[in-house]
Specification:
Shape: globular
Number of domains: 1
Strand order of the largest sheet: 5-4-1-6-8-7-9
Structural class: alpha/beta
CATH superfamily: Spore Coat Polysaccharide Biosynthesis Protein SpsA, Chain A
Helix content: 25-40%
Largest sheet: 7 strands, mixed
Mean pLDDT: 88
CATH class: Alpha Beta
Order of helices and strands: EEEHEHEHEHEEHHEH
């Protein structure tokens, strides 16, 4: 059984370019009077031993939230969420890493516990959140021992969080908490609907 929270480092993935949002930094967009990432921090921080923020710009602002901020590194090519996950796997001081995107302000208070329970029960290496039979690969619990495998995957120009995780036959963790948990915030139209 995975000891929650002491065995888990959390990471909020805020390193994307948000091109469909006009390049705005999604994690810093306002929701209910505070930056979006503040909501995610408040939900996830009590569930993990340490919470990291993966970001590639506005680093000084992200540091004001009191979490350790990590970046993708000097790789000139943009590698998407996998680069942030690799940086977090390298920075984590616990056996497991729990991931969530920055536009997930309604994470359930037992997110980590549910992910760990299913991973343990099924004897899987990784667990991934599932909603309405659709899996959500950026919501995952994985061991830091996969750091070298992910390094090799990226070195061969592979991409796609889902494709990388599928190779390990992850345990599926069903969440029926409502569609807001996994709703994507990718365009100004999405934001207008979500923030209203």
């Amino acid at each position: 059984m995975i000891d929650c929270p002491s065995a888990i480092t959390g990471v909020i993935l805020a390193g994307g370019r948000a091109e469909r949002m006009g390049g705005q930094d999604k994690g810093l967009l306002p929701l209910a009077g505070e930056p979006l990432i503040a909501h995610s921090i408040r939900r996830l921080q009590p569930q993990v031993a340490e919470l990291l923020i993966s970001a590639n710009r506005n680093l000084a602002i992200y540091r004001t939230f009191g979490c350790r901020v990590i970046s993708d590194g000097s790789e000139p090519r943009f590698r998407g969420p996998l680069a942030g996950i690799l940086a977090a796997l390298s920075a984590a001081k616990t056996p497991y890493l729990l991931t969530a995107p920055c536009d997930s302000p309604w994470l359930p208070p037992d997110y980590a516990a549910r992910m760990a329970a299913v991973l343990t029960r099924e004897g899987a290496l990784i667990s991934v959140a599932v909603h309405e039979e659709s899996w959500q690969p950026v919501f995952a619990l994985l061991p830091i021992t996969l750091r070298d495998d992910l390094t090799e995957w990226l070195a061969t120009d592979q991409r796609g969080v889902g494709r990388w995780l599928q190779r390990f036959q992850p345990a599926r963790v069903k969440f029926a908490d409502g569609p807001a948990l996994f709703r994507n915030l990718n365009t100004p139209q999405d934001w207008a609907e979500w923030a209203s």
